[in-house]
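Report of the visiting student (M.T.), summer placement. My assignment was to run the structure pipeline on a short list of targets and document each run. The first record concerns Pendrin.
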Amino acid sequence: MDECFHENDYHVSRRIYSNRVFDQVHERQAQEVQSLREQLSSACGCTDKWAVQKIKGLLPILDWLPKYPVKQWLPGDVVSGVTTGLVCCLQGVAYALLASVAPVYGLYSAFFPILTYFVLGTSRHISVGPFPVTCLMVGSVVLTLAPDEHFLRPANITAVNETVTDERLMEADVEAREAQRIMVACTMTMLVGLFQVAMGLMQVGFLVRYLSDPLVGGFTTAAAFHVFISQIKTILSVPIHNHNGCFAFAYTIIDVSKNINQTNIADLIAGLLTIFIVMAVKEINTKFQHKIPVPIPIEVIVTVIASAVSHVMDLNSQFGASIVHSLPRGFAPPQIPNIALIGKILGSSFSTAVVGYAVAVSVAKVYAAKHDYTVDGNQELIAFGVSNIFGGCFSSFVASTALSRTAVQESTGGKSQVAGIISALMVMIVILALGPFLQPLQKSVLAGIVIANLKGMFMQISEVPVLWRQNRIDCLIWIATCLASIVLGLDVGLLAGLVFEMGTVVVRTQFPSCATLGNVPNTDIYQNMKDYKNIDEIPGIKIFKCNSPIYFANIDYFKEKLKEEVGFDAVRVFKKRNKALKKIHKLIKKGKLQATENGLVPVASLGVENQAFETEQVSELDEGASQSDSEVKVQVDWTSELPVSVSVPTVNIHSLVLDFSAVSFLDVVAAKSLKLVVKEFIRIGVSVYIAGGDGQMVRRMEALSFFDEEVTRDILFLSVHDAILFIQLETSTGNDEDPLAEKISQLQDDKEPLPEDEDLIETYDIQHLAIYGLSN
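After the run finished, the structure tokens were exported:
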């Protein structure tokens, strides 16, 4: 053992602190407890400063716009706004395909939400608008409630001089279908907004923290897979049925495979070229981002070229290519939601609200950390909620943010939401003037743009091996959420992933890691004995640590691990010792054992083989027996062989220290059960001490009536080392007593029989039943 001193060594000299002694030496601060009326009064109290702060919190634009540095930020915001606005237009039109509505509504969704977020949002950099995942979730609901089959009508056949209706041929009423679909999308968008506003007003933005990074990663990867599958039919331009729910992707693939021979070559070539070119240029933008002042707006370039080629070559007429067709100028009139649909879309709307907010706030916090400012999660809920309500009134679908679009806004010099409002002006110009120029654009080009922008989400798969090496449980959450979302659908899959994630948390706390600690020689450091070699276990003392809160679900596991670490069952030891004492007491009454100052001695061992001395020995024995029983205290050595045939488990410790430094709380059931455990050890002569619990834990134990005359606050110590030093001091002064020795001595004095085993078992069982309130 190294006894040398090093320059980094230090020495601390202080007294041994139990919690009681520490509270006496260091006065505890009084805990201020407010009544309900006082709490309401302080919460509802209104001053001018408080009112201004609340107004600025609700309308952040009042805080940052007066401080806006025009000369420094405006040039960058203008360039960023123009560039981002062009990307917003094209992504809005493309993502409308995912929402299963006409392309013009994608432009509305890229315009209206930005207006309200400009006033209410707290992020300076995110670009508000359509996001592929939420668009697909909206689209699945739209296709469920407004499938093509609901809008079939007899086809009209034009003859030479008249139009004839043929009942055998059916065609879709496109106008009625589009009207119903946008009604479903708008109603769902407004309901999503109401959910988000309600959560923001209730200050429950923290609930999104339960959507961990592995869960969100698995979910968005599955969403990218669904988006990819949904766009295959547009790339190939083949007719398929609409499928939703479990295994919808499989049914879609089967339909595409059956109709693969109907593939439109012009659409296929345009789609594949779009995917290849967009992905290649995006790679160039990423690789040379420090050398290129502004990222190449490849989506805009491809769209302009594709529209021109389609118009010049008349691809729709010549090759049957599927094009946008109608992209009217101007805005649609506002409309109210269809209340009758709310019951059918309630669950999907809530999951979409959570997903949209979770993605947006995650992206916002990334850029907030990069540029050193804060984002208010609850205010973001209100901002996105109001944006969705406002957008839903003007034929928009759910708004969130897209990482690629936000990256464009930030990398092109955007400093604030002024860039966002300029991008909205660009979208407005397209809506009012330039929309018809996009009418010849092939839908497969839009689908190609969507698929090319999925690369980032698909690349998350590469994180799985790394996650497996870092934390296998988090990796399982990723995989389970991804598979569930692919197989069951996005809304049900998200719920299944969340349940699985919560299950892993419960399992990890229900089966916590427990360990026996040992002392690092010549220090006050105690570590897991399985982790280090030169760790000493203190003789006669067991130090047990549980690295988890202790509550109703894991208290039984805690007791099992404690029993395993100490090497015996305190209840069984107690029963066996009482059984042995009962037999010893009977032997003493029959005269086969004699209680002496040296312990229990069989009568035969006193030596009576010589008949000449038999009378003398018996008389001496009678004299010894006639002495007052109170003068002889019997000590039973439980570690040696007993004079009765009872196998008593060995107890090789005299003290047990429970390290509660990692225990954050106890509940009622755990407190009652733990108190019973402490008493079980005390009644077999093992002292129990609790170390490392903070002040809140102690107050919690007091509130749960953990302490009484037998289990007092004197068992609490500030640290494990304080408890160990106290135990060593107590044992060195010989203050430890054997309670069973006192019991047998008292039994000899009173000449009362020991309780039967059945009585002991009944008492023990009643104590355990009392924990759950089941005893009579």
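The chain has 31 helices and twelve strands. The longest strand covers residues 163-172. I thank the supervising group for their guidance throughout the placement.
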